[in-house]
Specification:
Bound molecules: iron/sulfur cluster
Order of helices and strands: EHEEHE
Radius of gyration: 10 Å
Largest sheet: 2 strands, antiparallel
Shape: globular
Structural class: alpha+beta
Length: 63
């Protein structure tokens, strides 16, 4: 299964993707966005939901 990759240099920690994720796989952890790979179902909702274009699904390596 493909997992999203967060381009951290673009992420503003706005939290939009956290709200969009149906499984709670994304969460703000202090000054970074965390992905719990075991909770991600690869739906891709977080990719277009990021206003900064910071989320991509380009490989199988978790962020
Ligand atoms: S691909 Fe889907 S399940 Fe995985 S982090 Fe993004 S919104 Fe959540
Ligand atoms: S939507 Fe984009 S900018 Fe906002 S927290 Fe998620 S990855 Fe970061």
């Amino acid at each position: 299964m493909r997992l999203p990759h967060i381009h951290r240099e673009r992420c503003t920690l706005c939290g939009e993707c956290v709200e969009l994720c149906p499984t709670g796989a994304l969460e703000l952890r202090g000054t970074r966005l965390g992905l719990t790979a075991a909770e991600c179902v690869g739906c891709g909702a977080c990719v277009p939901g990021c206003p900064e274009g910071a989320v991509g699904i380009t490989g199988n390596t978790p962020c």
